[in-house]
């Protein structure tokens, strides 16, 4: 089984066709732009538009809302194919679907769906999800951003104050809105103690009092759009509440489970991109008059890289198939995310070592993968959070 052979994974003919289509698109349209986009830290919106034309942003949504009628497997195959050549583009798709459109589809009203989904699913617009705060990362329940309901002459409005950080797709020229988690009051818990009531509110781009800060100077994912956000008395209609009041945190956790599968697919693609590059380099690089790949130490290193890709793909496909079948998948999503993010980081390190000094040069894709892959162990739940989820499923954690 070669690095690109998907025949062993039980894909349908339609899934094989999709994977091949996106891989060709990635090689022909994404890869040639990846180095320059990374160097200039610019998201190529023409690539985003082309992905929209291919229907990638609508893959896991039903046709009646403008989607392609696919599922988590279809989305994962597309993300994996893109991440082989450019993680920034892959995360733009992943976040655009999982964090931008999916909350509206899952929890939005009919009116919100009708207004927002057509452009999101066509790739004409992007949206962000404002969860992480300076004092609330993995502890998302520590949210400090507030939204209070005020009556005005024109109707009730949410007044939002606070800050968010590390928000993907929040400041592009086609970003239409961000959905933010905010404390909207207090509720009494089962133990009689007060609990924060956390809800989600849609805040359109350009809303007075809503400021998108300068883009971050990141270690990797340079072409991915990421900003801090601030809210100073930002007002939106009461109808911009997304989902049931007080269910914002719980709803986000369900979205996060789905997102972990997509991140696992992205990580698998990154690991595979490193594997492909290492195989090609070892087959052509001459060292002391011999091909680098003729050395057993290099062969063993690359064999382990293939092992990681294989295990990572099995893990995310298993979780995605459980989700598509409507079965519980929280633990499997955590296992997939942990397995695949480890594979991406380990393969990036090994590929860079195989490339030697060239691997330290940004013109080579393995250097970009080395920088990009670290965030895969942090975003959408850190490695430690995944271990905690798995431990809880085993009855080992309270």
Can you summarize this structure?
The protein is an alpha+beta fold. The protein has helices spanning 13-40, 45-54, 72-83, 87-107, 110-121, 248-284, 296-324, 330-355, 365-373, 383-393, and strands at 126-130, 146-152, 155-168, 175-188, 194-204, 210-212, 226-237, 241-242, 286-287, 290-291.
Question: What would the keywords be for this entry?
Answer:
single chain, 398 residues, alpha+beta, Butyryl-Coa Dehydrogenase, subunit A, domain 1, Butyryl-CoA Dehydrogenase, subunit A, domain 2, Butyryl-CoA Dehydrogenase, subunit A, domain 3, 3 domains, four-stranded mixed β-sheet, four-stranded antiparallel β-sheet, 10 helices, 10 strands
Task: Please characterize this protein's 3D structure.
- Helix 1 packs across helix 3, helix 4 runs antiparallel to helix 5 and helix 6 runs antiparallel to helix 7.
- The two termini are 43 Å apart.
- The model has no long low-confidence stretch (mean pLDDT 94).
- The chain is 49% helix and 18% strand.
- The chain is built from 10 helices and 10 strands.
- The protein is globular, with a radius of gyration of 21 Å.
- The protein has 3 domains: 120 residues, Butyryl-Coa Dehydrogenase, subunit A, domain 1, CATH 1.10.540.10; 119 residues, Butyryl-CoA Dehydrogenase, subunit A, domain 2 (Beta Barrel); 144 residues, Butyryl-CoA Dehydrogenase, subunit A, domain 3.
- The chain is of the alpha+beta class and 398 residues long.
């Amino acid at each position: 089984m070669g690095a690109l052979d998907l025949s062993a994974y039980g894909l349908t003919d339609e899934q094989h066709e999709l994977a091949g289509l996106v891989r060709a698109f990635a090689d022909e349209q994404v890869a040639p732009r990846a180095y320059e986009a990374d160097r200039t830290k610019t998201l190529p919106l023409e690539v985003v538009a082309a992905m929209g034309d291919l229907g990638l942003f609508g893959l896991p949504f039903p046709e009646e809302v403008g989607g392609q009628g696919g599922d988590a497997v279809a989305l994962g195959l597309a993300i994996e194919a893109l991440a082989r050549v450019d993680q920034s583009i892959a995360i733009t798709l992943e976040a655009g679907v999982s964090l931008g459109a999916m909350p509206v589809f899952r929890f939005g009203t009919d009116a919100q769906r009708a207004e927002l989904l057509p452009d999101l699913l066509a790739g004409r617009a992007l949206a962000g999800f404002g969860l992480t705060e300076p004092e609330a990362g993995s502890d998302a329940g520590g949210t400090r951003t507030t939204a209070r309901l005020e009556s005005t002459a024109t109707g009730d409005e949410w007044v939002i104050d606070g800050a968010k950080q590390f928000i993907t797709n929040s400041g592009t020229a086609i970003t239409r809105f961000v959905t933010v988690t905010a404390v909207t009051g207090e509720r009494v818990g089962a133990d009689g103690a007060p609990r924060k009531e956390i809800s989600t509110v849609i805040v359109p781009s350009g809303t007075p009092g809503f400021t998108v800060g300068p883009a971050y100077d990141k270690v990797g994912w340079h072409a991915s759009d990421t900003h801090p956000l601030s809210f100073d008395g930002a007002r939106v209609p009461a109808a911009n509440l997304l989902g049931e009041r007080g269910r914002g945190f719980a709803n986000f956790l369900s979205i996060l489970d789905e997102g972990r599968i997509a991140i696992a697919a992205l990580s698998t693609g990154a690991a595979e991109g490193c594997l492909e590059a290492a195989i090609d380099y070892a087959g052509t690089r001459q060292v002391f008059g011999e091909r680098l790949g003729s050395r057993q130490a290099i062969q063993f290193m690359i064999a382990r890289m293939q092992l990681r890709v294989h295990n990572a793909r099995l893990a995310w496909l298993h979780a995605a198939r459980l989700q598509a079948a409507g079965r519980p998948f929280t633990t499997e999503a955590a296992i997939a995310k942990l397995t695949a993010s480890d594979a991406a980081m380990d393969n990036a390190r090994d590929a860079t070592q195989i490339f030697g000094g060239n691997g330290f040069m940004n013109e080579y894709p393995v250097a970009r993968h080395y920088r990009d892959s670290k965030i895969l162990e942090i975003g959408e739940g850190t490695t430690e959070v995944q271990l905690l989820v798995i431990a809880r499923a085993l009855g080992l954690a309270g």
